[in-house]
Amino acid sequence: MVLVALLGGVVLGELPRADAASVNISWTAPTTNADGTALRDLGGYRLYLGTGTPACPSGSFHAVSSPTTAPAAGQQVNNRLTGLVANTTYFARVTAVDRNGNESTCSGTASGVAHADINVTPTTSVSFGTVAAGGSVDRTFTVQNTSGASLSGSVSVGAPFRIVSGGSFTLAAAATQNVLVRFQPTTGGTFAGNVNVTAAGDTLSRGVSGTATGAASSPVSPPPPSGSLKVAMTAPTPGATVRGTAWVVLWVEGASGSANVFTLSAAGRVVGSQTTSSRGPVTIAWTPTVNGSTTLTASVRDAAGRTGSATMQVNAQGASGAVTAPPPPPSGTLRVAITDPKWDAFVRRGAGVTLWVEGTSGSANSFNLIANGKFVGGLTTSSRGPVTIPWTATTNGTNTLTAWVKDAAGRTGSTSLRVWVVDASAAAVTQPPSSLANMLSAFITKPTQDATVSGTAWPVVWADGASGSPNTYTLSVDNRVAGTATTGSLGPVTIPWVTPVANGSHTLTAMVRDASGHTGRTSIPVTMRN
Q1: What pLDDT sits at residue 431?
Q2: By residue range, what is the domain housing residue 291?
Q3: Residue 470: closest CA among 491, 489, 457, 451
Q4: Is there a single domain that holds both residue 423 and residue 354?
C-alpha cells in the first residue's frame, strides 16, 4: 500500500545552547493509507535533513524505526539527530515507509537550530607550558550538562596527557564536574592532542599542548640495590625537582664494623663522601652544576669490604649558583637542614619540624626552631639528627621556619624554608615535651609521596633511633591497619599492602615501636588506581 501523502506536524526542537550539535525532531504518525484504509503495516520513517531545504525523496536520509505497525491517532514520534554543526539552522522533511518499502509523499519543511547537551570550559585550546621530562603539570576542565535531563558521559585524552580524575560523569540538569588532566612526559619534545568529552552521542574536543625539556626521568623509583649491602636514599625522592644545594640522605643495612664509607655521585662524578660508624641517616650536600635530569648514586663500603649501591633520578634546576626557588643557603660553619616539612609544603597546626646538622664536634648540640622571627622551641642532644621540635602555628598562610644549631665548640649554622599553614591555632608550643629525646623516626622510601599504586603494593619502611630488639612496624591506610612486621632490623622492612581500598587518594602511615616502647611514625599521600 502507498501511504498517506503528508505526515502532520513536523517540528524541530531547539536544545539549550552549547558547543556541540544536535536537534530533536518530532512529528505525528500516520494512521491511514493513501486509499483511506487503516494503516496496519507501517515499517518506519525516512528523515531528510540539510542546511537548506532537503531534496525529498532522495538517496540521503536517516532511517527511523516505528515502535508499531499500526499507530494510534495523534501518536507522536520523536527522534534526536547528533553530530551536527553547532549554532547552525537545519531543515527537515519526513516520509513514512511501509513494510514492503513503499514510501509516502514528503511532509512539509520544519527548521531549527542545532545545539547540544554539554559544554566544556575552557572553550579554547589549552597550553600546559614547559615542564622537565619526568615532571608533570595539571590543568582543570569543567563539563556542564546544558540539557534539561540527567546526562552521562566520559572524557579521554592520549599520552603523554592523562585523565587524573573526573574521567566519567553522570550530571543532573545544569550540573558541572571538574576534570583534572595531567601532562606527564617521559621524554623531551613538543606534544599536542585533544581532550575529548563524549555524551549523548556528541563529542566536544579541546586542543591541548605542552613541551618537555631534558631526557627521560625514568626510573621513577630506585632500582634494587647492588652488592651485598642494602643502600637507600630517602631524600630527595625519585623524580623530585632539586633547586640549589640539596641534602642527600643515605642509609645502609647489613654493614659490619665501625667504618662505613658513604659516597655520593651525581652523573657519574663523586660529589662527597663520609666515613662513619652510623648506618644512617648520613647527609651529604650536593650542589648541581648542570640543569635537567641527573642520576644520583649512593654507594657504601663497610669495614669488611662489602659494598652496596642505589640510584635515583632527579631534576636539577638553578644549577651553577642560580637558585630559582631556594630555601636560603645555610649560614655559619655548621651545615643545617630541615627535612620535614618540605619547602612550600601545606602544614596544619601541631606539626613536628625535623632538623639535622652536619660538622659538629662534642656531644652537646643545641637545636632551636624559630617561626617568623619568634622562638618556638629548643633541644640539646648529642644527636646530629633527626631532631623533632613541635610547632603549633599561630598564623595562617605563609610562614618562615628557621633552624639554628650551636655545637659544644660554639660553632653555629642555620637554614630557613617557607611553608603554608592552613589551620593555625592561637596557642603556640614554646617548649618540647620531655619525652622528645626518646622519639623514633620512621621513613617510607617506597612508594614515594604522591605515587600511584595498583594491585598489591610493597611499602618499604625504615627506622632510626630504636633501642633494643625487636622493633614492631605497623602499616596503616587511612588509619586502618594493613599489615605488621616484627624484626630486629632498622630497615629496609617490606610490608605487603593487600587491603582493598577504593580508587583515589589515601594516606599511608608507617609506625615503629622499639623494645623500650618508644614510637615514631610518618605518613605520605598516595593514589590507588586499579
Answers
A1: 35
A2: 226-317
A3: 489
A4: yes
Cα–Cα distance measured from residue 296 to residue 235, given in angstroms and rounded to the nearest whole number: 11
Side chain identity, residue 440: L
CATH of the domain at 12: 2.60.40.10
Is residue 282 scored above 90 in pLDDT? no
Same domain (yes/no): 339, 307: no
* 458-495 core/surface letters (b: 16 or more CB in 10 A; e: else): ebbbbbbbbeeeebebbbbbeeeebbebeeebbbbbeb
CA–CA dist 207, 192 (Å, integer): 7
Facing residues of 265 across strands? 270, 297
As a whole number, mean pLDDT of residues 115-129 equals 86
Q: Specify the pLDDT at position 35.
A: 86
Query: Are 356 and 423 part of one and the same domain?
Result: yes
What's this model's pTM, rounded to 2 decimal places? 0.35
For 142-158, write each residue's pLDDT tens digit.
Answer: 998 887 678 788 888 88
The reply to whether 218 falls in a domain is no
206 or 439: which carries more pLDDT confidence?
206
From the list 296, 303, 235, the residue with the least C-alpha distance to 269 is: 296
User: What is residue 415's predicted lDDT score, i.e. its pLDDT?
Assistant: 82
In terms of Cβ atoms closer than 10 Å to its own Cβ (0-12, 13-18, 19+), residue 208 is: buried
Confidence of residue 222 (pLDDT cuts 50, 70, 90): very low
Average pLDDT over residues 208-223: 60
The mean pLDDT value of the chain amounts to 77
Supply 520's cell numbers.
Answer: 615514631
Quick one: 203 and 236 in the same domain?
no
Number of domains in the chain: 5
Final residue before a domain boundary, out of 403, 438, 473: 438
- Which is more confidently placed, 15 or 257? 257
- Considering the domain architecture, whether residues 261 and 337 belong to the same structural domain is answered as no
Residue 434, phi then psi, degrees to nearest 5: -65, -25
Inform me whether the pLDDT recorded for 322 exceeds 50: no
Residue 422: inside a domain? yes
CA torsion sign for 19, 22, 23, 24 is negative
* Residue at 219 is within a domain: no
Left, alpha or beta for 427 (phi > 0: left; psi -120 to 50: alpha)? beta
N-term to C-term CA, the chain: 59
Question: Is the confidence at residue 429, as pLDDT, over 60?
Answer: no
Other residues' Cβ atoms within 10 Å of the Cβ of residue 418 = 16
Domain membership of residue 308 (yes or no) is: yes
43-55 b/e with 16+ CB inside 10 Å = b? bbbbbbbeeeebe
- Of 438, 455, 472, the one marking the end of a domain is 438
**Residue at 242: amino acid letter:** V
Report d(CA 364, CA 387) in Å as an integer: 13
- In terms of domains, do 345 and 434 share one? yes
Tell whether 511 and 459 lie within a shared domain.
yes
- For residue 391, how many other CB atoms are within 10 A of its CB? 25
> Are 371 and 434 members of one domain?
yes
